[in-house]
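FORM 7B: Structural annotation worksheet

SECTION A. Query
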Amino acid sequence: MHHSPEKADAGLVRQAQVRVREARTLLARPSVRSVEETGAPIQAALGCLLTLRNSLRSAGAPPEPGELVAALGELRREILSANVLLEGAARFYLGWARLFYAAACGYTPTGEPATLVPAGRLSVEL
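SECTION B. Predicted structure
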């Protein structure tokens, strides 16, 4: 059975979409570990897209709208959804960082977190 190049290319996009969906699932419950674990599926998705790019370059002619374009649209939506989750995780951890900073530095009389003042050091050489 002969597969068209467009079907093969669309298959690469679908593989990338599955991997981005894996990353998105990890980001749905953000933890340090789950955020770190998104690296492997994102790298795999990138590998699929690099293979697709090389395939399209070697084909010479641009693909006709169809299955490949539809698959790319679905991948785009998956990536946008993962991006929203990643931004949410970043805001979550940034909020915790601000709380830890304020706990370590205290507050000014106006209620703002105080500036971190590093401990002084004195070094004398004789």
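SECTION C. Observations
The two ends are 85 Å apart (CA to CA). DSSP finds four helices and no strands in the chain.

SECTION D. Sign-off
Analyst initials: ____
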